[in-house]
Specification:
The chain is α+β, with helices and mostly antiparallel strands and about 210 residues long. It is built from seven helices and eight strands; from the N terminus they run αββββαβααβαββαα.
């Protein structure tokens, strides 16, 4: 139970940060974390800035509520689908940030145009086929286009990012939004220039092996 309680605190904290940083508007978007036997996820339609760890919902991997007093996030099927298909993933954040969602609305893949994006996210982010929110169809489309990548754009919807920790995934969401915003502004200046794949790989390798106090 200690593992679950710690997960609740982390999910609630990151949900607040997501809202404070403008990665979502009002009650949209969601956050989850995998524990040994469950998924801790934000409730549906509640103000993130007012959420506390006791408001978090605990679900199993079959769609059953284990713990919680509120309705679970409508995107729980998508979170469950990702966890069941990606054993390497322990945290998921779904955002509706403005510039990244612009790419999703235009149904255009996002390419690396800034180096920190290339270091953390890697190569381009694909756009999943459109499906109504909260449906099994959206979950299937998401995992089909996410595959082994760190993030996917949901057509006309937003961003889903995954990783080994909520801190890592929150950073990924921040850099996706920065890369999207930079891409839009650079387009006004006649660009942007996309970083070549060989350089993306080298930037990613450098970050993983040498960056920081390693």
């Amino acid at each position: 139970m200690l593992e679950v309680e710690k997960a609740k605190e982390k999910v609630a904290f990151v949900a607040k940060k997501m809202a404070e940083e403008g990665l979502v508007v009002e009650t949209w978007g969601n956050v989850s974390m995998r524990t040994r036997d469950s998924i801790v996820i934000t409730p549906s339609g509640m103000d993130y800035k007012k959420l506390n760890f006791v408001d978090m919902i605990v679900m199993d991997f079959h769609g059953n509520m284990i713990e919680g007093k509120w309705k679970v996030s409508s995107e729980y099927p998508m979170h469950r689908c990702i966890y069941r298909n990606r054993e390497d993933v322990t945290a998921i954040i779904h955002t509706h940030s403005t510039f990244a969602t612009s790419f999703a609305a235009a149904r255009k893949e996002m390419y690396p145009v800034v180096e920190d994006f290339a270091q953390i996210v890697g190569s381009k982010i694909k756009v999943a086929e459109y499906a109504l929110p909260g449906t099994d169809e959206l979950a299937a489309s998401c995992i089909n286009f996410l595959k082994e990548n760190a993030a996917v754009l949901l057509a006309n919807h937003g961003v889903v990012a995954v990783g080994n920790s909520l801190e890592e995934v929150l950073l990924t969401c921040r850099l996706i939004e920065k890369n999207a915003e930079t891409s839009v502004y650079a387009a006004m200046l006649g660009g942007p220039y996309i970083i070549e794949e060989k350089n993306v790989k080298e930037l990613r390798r450098y970050y993983l092996e040498q960056y920081g106090q390693k």
